[in-house]
Amino acid sequence: MINWLIKVLPNVVSMGWSGDYGWWAAIYQTLYMTFFSAIIGGAIGLVFAIILVISDDDGILPNGKIFWLADKIVSIFRAIPFIILLFVISPFTQVLIGTTLGATAALVPLSLSVAPFYARQIQVVLKSVDTGKIEAAQALGANNWDILVIYMRESFPEIIRVSTVTLISLVGLTAMAGAIGSGGLGNTVVTFGQQSKYDVVWIGTIALLILIFAIQGIGDWLAKRINHADMQ
Amino acid sequence: MSDSIIELKNISVHFQNGSESIDAVKNINLAIEKGEIFGIVGYSGAGKSSLVRLINLLHHPSSGDMMIGQTKTVKNGNVLIKGKELRNLRQKIGMIFQHFNLLDQSTVLGNVLFALKHSKMSKEKRLEKAKKLVEEVGLFDRIDNHPSQLSGGQKQRVAIARALANDPEILISDEATSALDPKTTKQILELLADLNKRTGLTIVLITHEMQVVKNIANRVAVMRDGEIIEKNSTYSIFADPQKPLTKEFIESASGNQEALEKILRQPEIARLQKNEFLIQLGFSGSSTDEPLISSLAKNYGVSANILYGNVETIENIPIGTLIVVLSGTATKLKQALDEIKKQNVKLEIIKEGK
């Protein structure tokens, strides 16, 4: 068995499971980058989305200036290609993390790249909450906090759905973060691909696909399970 | 001091939509009495929705004064209450909507409990009250269902339970039956009328269907282009409408117009003979008791062929319509018509035979 594996997938086997450059390290770095940048970038994106929705003309606290500012920040960060953002913000990363290399340093550009993407998705989701529900809540004497809760709860299945989409695109971004030595499955595939070691490319790609399908599957299942509204 | 619970004085609502300036509500004066069911009728875009949203200040007026109960809420177009005070006022004004506006991700119980979120009652008391409200609207077996599992009528019942959670003195119904079928509409209106009777709840009901106000309203206002063009007791509006738009609404509710159109298409009416008249008679109140038709035959020898008849009871007063063909000699016919005019009956000569 082992001999057969060595014959068919020589470079996959020689990478080894453990060790700094083994498969487990690559998988761990991908999961690490995806998870933490999702939390940090997701939180920033969510805050911006809420600001955009409530300060909009038809929001509960309309404020043209705040909306304009938040909208421009999101648009600008959304417009910068990730591979460029990696280098543009590297001085900032240096100050924040103390280095510009490695998986932890990659969290900064990953978070800043995923935040505006997520903000726009959540903004669309929150805006799709029927204004009638908001009006009914106001008529019942609800305060602004109650209304924010309604926005979130009524769109929760949709929030799960767009979070899944965001998470999947984030896995894609972690592959590019290899350019700053972040490690991870994507980086492994690119590095070995450049050396024409295609067995690693295939196995690395399969591992990434498994991760993406798992995220998609769990997201779809969860969104369906918690939704009580009529399916559109 | 009047018993008004809602008092609007010279109220206007003005929107600026880009370069377009819209007067949604124009200089309205309206006093709604405590405990009455007040209907506001008009086509969409007449300003009904804007008008009722002033009551709970979901919309702000541009000018005028408003009193809700003993609270002055608007003076010279300035809203006097805000923040917690405004939210407390809103809790005393329930509102139901055409599309129910329930929280889809919450259960029936959850929807009602949401309304009690700011109540001073303990958690147990709130739960008890929410359950009682759900029971009152006849949905106790559906208490753990989500809105998507309910029919339109059931959804509106949940919305009513939710609107009543804080024991409001006023209930605003914004086209609440417009998305429901006739049978369910009737049930919901009966529920509202019953609430009004039992608890003295003041109901402001806006609709584009005269049928709805006919069944339950005590008074009716007809709105067009942001103005109230006619306002009277429901009975007077139906018995003696003044404005063409009011007549149009009433005809749409009674089916008289439809009947007349069918009659006019009949060949014998199309070829009405000499000394034959097609007339429409409108009876109301005590005039419905007089045996008019038989007296025409007895006293004038004029025969009356009844083609259509309809009696409706509004606020316990009957209102009737008859469409008949009168025939007799020319002189007798003239005398008969004069006699009808003398009675308390509205006469309309639709067609004269040649």
From TrEMBL, chain A:
Subcellular localization: Cell membrane
**Key word Transmembrane helix present:** yes
TM helices/strands, residue ranges: 31-54, 66-89, 95-118, 159-180, 200-223
Matching InterPro entries: AA_ABC_Transporter_Permease, MetI-like, MetI-like_sf
**GO biological process: one example:** D-methionine transmembrane transport
Where does this chain mainly localize?
membrane
**Which GO cellular component terms are attached?**
plasma membrane
Q: Where is the ABC transmembrane type-1 domain?
A: 27-219
- Record's SUPFAM superfamilies? MetI-like
Q: Which family does it belong to?
A: Belongs to the binding-protein-dependent transport system permease family.
Annotated PANTHER family: ABC TRANSPORTER PERMEASE, D-METHIONINE TRANSPORT SYSTEM PERMEASE PROTEIN METI-RELATED
This protein is called ABC transmembrane type-1 domain-containing protein
- Say which species the protein is native to: Oenococcus oeni AWRIB429
